[in-house]
Amino acid sequence: TSFAHSLTDAPAGSDVVWMLRTIPSIYSIYLRDASGNLILDGNGDKIYDYGNDRVGWSGWNVLGDAKYNTYKTYVDNISNRDYIEVTFMPTLKFRSTLSIDYYLTSYHGYTNADYGYMAGRGAAYKSYDRNVATTLTNVLNYNQSFGKHTVGITLGEENFSRHVTGMSGGKEDFPFSGLTELSSAATMTSLSSYIDDYRLLS
Fold first, then answer.
1. Is 166 helix (H, G, I), strand (E, B) or coil?
2. Within a 10 A sphere around the Cβ of 7, how many other Cβ atoms?
3. Contacts of 170 (CB under 8 A, 6+ apart)
4. CB 121 within 8 A of CB 110
5. Strand extents, DSSP E, the chain
6. What is the mean pLDDT of the chain?
7. Which helix (H) or strand (E) element contains residue 175?
8. Strand partners for 100
9. What is the mean pLDDT of residues 129-149?
10. Could you tell me which residues come within 8 angstroms of residue 193 by beta carbon, excluding any fewer than 6 positions away?
11. Most CB atoms within 10 A, among 17, 49, 97, 126?
12. What is the sign of the dihedral through the CA atoms of 143, 144, 149 and 152?
């Protein structure tokens, strides 16, 4: 039996790559005044420039989004392999193998309500996908030697099943910053779920 858990926090999606390829290099990462001096917030920290006066990509800043937004994907994977073998006689053996794979992935996305294109609103999106696959294999082997000759017979069957479920939802319009759960937002933007069952006997 094996277990694996991973967490990925990766904001570099297709929109980010497209922005880096198309936005002119004249735009500053941090907010500056008319003289080109950095503008600091009340804590003395630099403020990201979201380009409210830009012709394109207004409300976007790659570094700012990476700092203030959340793009986390959690993955849990459990795999198990077991078998049993029975020898009825030297020439006749039976083997049964059971394989179980459990895969769970969840995504937690949040766009902050303080800066950027969702300023004053904020948005959150969550999704969960669960995949359970089971394979049962039964094999009966018969081998008998007659002098210089050997007769071998193998009979087998495999039963495969997969059950997949998923749910996703998104909401926006948070009352104030610091809230990231869907229950805190006012406006539903998406909600869906699905089930997929597959079986194969061979």
1. strand
2. 8
3. 123, 124, 125, 126, 182, 188, 189, 190, 191
4. no
5. 2-9, 70-89, 92-111, 123-146, 149-172, 187-201
6. 90
7. none
8. 80, 134
9. 94
10. 165, 166, 167, 168
11. 49
12. negative
Would you say residue 5 has pLDDT above 80? yes
Angle 150-154-159 (CA atoms, 0-180°, nearest 5)? 170
- Distance CA(131)–CA(178), nearest Å, equals 32
Q: What's the pTM value of the predicted model, to 2 decimals?
A: 0.77
Q: What's the pLDDT score for residue 196?
A: 97
The structure tokens 């570099």 sit at 12
Residue 12: pLDDT over 60: no
Q: Please provide the distance, in angstroms rounded to a whole number, between the alpha carbons at the two ends of the chain.
A: 26
Check whether 14 has a pLDDT greater than 70. Answer: no
Distance CA 191, CA 171 (A): 9
Residue 189 · residue 170 · CB < 8 Å: yes
Strands 92-111 and 187-201, how do they pair? Answer: unpaired
- 182, 150 Cβ separation under 8 angstroms: no
pLDDT (0 to 100) of residue 100: 97
Distance in angstroms (rounded) separating the CA atoms of residues 187 and 191? 11
CB atoms within 10 A of CB 36: 7
Please tell me the distance from the alpha carbon of residue 110 to that of residue 186, in angstroms, as a whole number. 14
What's the chain's length in residues?
A: 202
